[in-house]
Amino acid sequence: MSGVSRRGLLGGIGAAGAGAAAIGFGAGWAAQGSEPDDAGSAPTTFDLYGEHQSGIVTPVQDRLHFAAFDVLTDDRESLVALLQAWTVAAAEMMAGRPAGPDISSYNAPPDDTGEAIGLPSSRLTITFGFGRSLFDDRFGLADRLPEALVELPHFPGDNLDPARSDGDLCVQACADDPQVAVHAVRNLARIGFGTVGVRWSQLGFGKTSTTTRDEQTPRNLMGFKDGTMNLKSDEQSDLDEHVWVEPSDDRDAWLAGGSYLVARRINMTIEIWDRQTLQSQEGDIGRTKAEGAPLSGGTEHDDPDFELAGRDGPLIDPASHVALAHPTANNGVRLLRRGYNFVDGSTEIGRLDAGLFFLAYVTDPRSHYIPMQTQLASKDRLQEYLQHTGSALFAIPGGIAPGEHVGQALFA
Ligand SMILES: C=CC1=C(C)c2cc3[nH]c(cc4nc(cc5[nH]c(cc1n2)c(C)c5CCC(=O)O)C(CCC(=O)O)=C4C)c(C)c3C=C
Ligand SMILES: [Fe+2]
């Protein structure tokens, strides 16, 4: 594996630390870049630097640790210093190295918490975002607030917990090993101590979407294949149309190459769902449970035929989830979904506190999320089993150039 193992680094990192540069610690431990394992095989390590941030079209990893932060200072320079430090540490961790150079001095806390030593990079990606509240008067950013970074409206059925919603900054860490994803968020929080505090965080397992075609479609906790019609990384013109921001004025020029991330914690009443007949479950989704094929016939990747009539009306119920989420019912809109299953223990009445942590990257939430969610919230048969308990919207700056920090154009 060319992705680097942290194994054996304890002995050598001190020497490397002495030469830590702004673009990375311990250069020479590993090559940067989306490194293939062997010639032609899938990458095992992703690069922080590039045209777009990693963790958006990157092949979806198995695990997630997502955190929203509040900035605790009013000092713009401290915020910029934090973003610089986060960028350097993120590049190191994505390369499979410790978050900082000094992990062996006895007289100071180590620059890395240690729990990922010996683990490979596990395809770690770290994606940063800025919430609407960052653009208040504290940092002189009010005139750079993009018009699309709106406050999401209240949707029918929302039961949002403010302690699981919003935030000045976000970090999405995805990896194939949960310990690597948690390590990334933990070390960024440690680096930010005194400047930022974690507002809320969410663990996820079992991706519910893919961005590539060579993988089996994963399943959500309702047992259905999820991600069949997701936007894929090779659909360049659709990504340009539906995911990447097209800056329109001075307020969002800094977002070139970026996107908007909608994060929704969606609880499922799983025990009630599990008592529904297979026919009813399939009718709610509009696809078969085993194969994921449209109820109008064919196999998983065949297009649904929403007109095809059965004995009692259309074979795909117009109130099913896929009928209402399909581009034909949404002005041609597509989303890049990147969500995860979650189970956060159980409730006081013994029900699983479980569901889908919905993550979607869009070019503009006003055209690409709000109308679709408005429609789903009022008409979708699935809605009976869902409750949205957390919500946030973040502007995701474009890619980072070597030597720069995430969101640098915003502070220029
Ligand atoms: C506002 C957007 C969406 C929310 C919220 C949402 C929640 C949600 N979805 C599922 C399960 C499935 N969704 C599927 C397809 C699908 N869902 C959305 C949007 C939202 N889903 C879109 C845009 C699509 C694609 C529609 C299309 O183009 O046909 C599917 C079918 C398989 C697939 O294509 O992915 C399932 C299954 C759950 C369980 C859920 C909330 C918990
Ligand atoms: Fe969906």
UniProtKB/TrEMBL annotation:
InterPro entries: Dimeric_a/b-barrel, Dyp_perox_C, Dyp_perox_N, Dyp_peroxidase, EfeB/EfeN, TAT_signal. Its EC number is 1.11.1.-. PROSITE patterns: DYP_PEROXIDASE, TAT. Binds 1 heme b (iron(II)-protoporphyrin IX) group non-covalently per subunit. Residues 53-205 form the Dyp-type peroxidase N-terminal domain. GO terms for biological process: iron import into cell. Keywords: Heme, Iron, Lyase, Metal-binding, Oxidoreductase, Peroxidase, Signal. Coiled coil: none annotated. It is found in: Cell envelope. Its cofactor is heme b. Its main location: other. It catalyses: heme b + 2 H(+) = protoporphyrin IX + Fe(2+). GO terms for molecular function: ferrochelatase activity; heme binding; metal ion binding; peroxidase activity. Residues 217-399 form the Dyp-type peroxidase C-terminal domain. Residues 208-230 are annotated as: Disordered. One of its GO terms (cellular component) is cytosol. The keyword Iron applies. PANTHER family: DEFERROCHELATASE, DEFERROCHELATASE/PEROXIDASE. Belongs to the DyP-type peroxidase family. NCBIfam families: Dyp_perox_fam (TIGR01413), tat_substr_1 (TIGR01412). Involved in the recovery of exogenous heme iron. Extracts iron from heme while preserving the protoporphyrin ring intact. This is Deferrochelatase. It comes from Nocardioides currus. The lineage of its organism: Bacteria, Bacillati, Actinomycetota, Actinomycetes, Propionibacteriales.
